[in-house]
Amino acid sequence: MKIESFTFADDGDVPNHPHWPMIVYLAALDAGEADPATAFERTFARHGWGDGWRNGIYAFPHYHSNAHEVLGIAAGEAVVRFGGAQGMVLTVRKGDAVLLPAGTGHQRLSSSSDLLVVGAYPPGAGRDLKRSGEPDKAQIRSRLRHVAKPLHDPIAGTTGPMISLWQQTP
Length: 170
Fold this sequence. Notes:
Elements lengths: L1 E5 L15 E5 L9 H11 L3 E6 L6 E2 L5 E7 L1 E6 L5 E6 L3 E4 L5 E6 L4 E6 L8 E2 L5 H9 L15 H5 L5
Antiparallel strand pairs: 1-2, 2-8, 3-10, 4-11, 5-8, 5-10, 6-7, 6-9
């Protein structure tokens, strides 16, 4: 598994996280995994991440101001803009996972017809859904600064890259 991390500045509309980077886990699952969706769900659950779902990625810019989110690409691939309008475009593929700290914008630009994403959240995360153009920007930014760092990385538990990359406490 290869790890990449990206930090996005607040673009005035999408806040992104002021301290913690987005983490991309390339080939988080073995390419030969027979049931990647179930494998992601089990991996996330083993590390305390739950309240999951199976679906895709919204085609509009959005983020969560009160919860971190992990996305496991169980099938297909998608071209996704992360970090808002001034962010970056990445292609995520079957077996990859993306850890989005609270406030990190994401938007599906295109995808294969078989795209299947498994999402999960750390314990206690009652998530909201914020879109571009939200009016209460000061309150949103305040809220995301207070979202706690999870105890475990959703892919690798206590030894995962989140543990070292998310060291600064807001």
